[in-house]
């Protein structure tokens, strides 16, 4: 796992210099580093199960690790989404119209509906604990799905399950 960047300011740059994008408002630069835990490696997350080492390296190059302080909103219902986020370490609560609909943890992701369909965020996601997330902007997300059809399927199935759960309760 690449070291987590903690950055400030209105813009930030990923580990790979040609990439530059707007700085997420939820990211923190002054969070204390907790050396007692290490973020879960991508290989341990269900989303990335079955990918080869070279595929995992390609995925890792697209991502930017970001730290988020407990209590910060990762997404806000109704707002335009600019990134896809994968929780690598920590937990977050999902609220829709103010009602708690889910709790997310390591390996869960948010933002796929906004990235796939260009629709506003469907829920507010708030960090319950300090989080480490991997962030991808729209271009990086599209590249990720184009390069990894198995991963694209997992993301789409996750989006469908999430929509079903919101409308009908958890899927069997």
From TrEMBL:
Every Cyclic nucleotide-binding domain range: 47-162
UniProt region (Disordered), positions on chain: 1-40
GO cellular component: cytosol
Gene Ontology molecular function, alphabetical: DNA-binding transcription factor activity
InterPro entries documented for this protein: cNMP-bd_CS (IPR018488), cNMP-bd_dom (IPR000595), cNMP-bd_dom_sf (IPR018490), Env_Response_Regulators (IPR050397), RmlC-like_jellyroll (IPR014710)
Cross-referenced Pfam families: cNMP_binding
Cross-referenced CDD domains: CAP_ED
Protein name: Cyclic nucleotide-binding domain-containing protein
Lineage, opening ranks: unclassified sequences, metagenomes, ecological metagenomes
């Amino acid at each position: 796992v690449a070291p987590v960047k903690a950055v400030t300011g209105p813009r930030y740059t990923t580990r790979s210099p040609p990439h530059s994008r707007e700085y997420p408002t939820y990211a923190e630069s002054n969070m204390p580093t907790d050396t007692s835990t290490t973020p879960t490696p991508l290989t341990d997350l269900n989303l990335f199960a079955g990918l080869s080492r070279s595929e995992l390296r390609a995925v890792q190059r697209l991502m930017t690790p970001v730290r988020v302080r407990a209590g910060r909103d990762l997404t806000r219902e109704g707002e335009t989404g600019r990134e896809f986020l994968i929780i690598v370490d920590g937990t977050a609560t999902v609220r829709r119209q103010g009602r708690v609909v889910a709790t997310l943890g390591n390996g869960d992701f948010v933002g796929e509906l906004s990235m796939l369909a260009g629709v506003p965020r469907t829920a507010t996601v708030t960090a319950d604990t300090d989080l480490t997330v991997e962030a991808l902007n729209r271009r990086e997300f599209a590249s990720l799905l184009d390069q990894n059809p198995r991963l694209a399927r997992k993301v789409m199935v996750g989006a469908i399950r999430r929509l079903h759960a919101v409308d009908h309760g958890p899927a069997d």
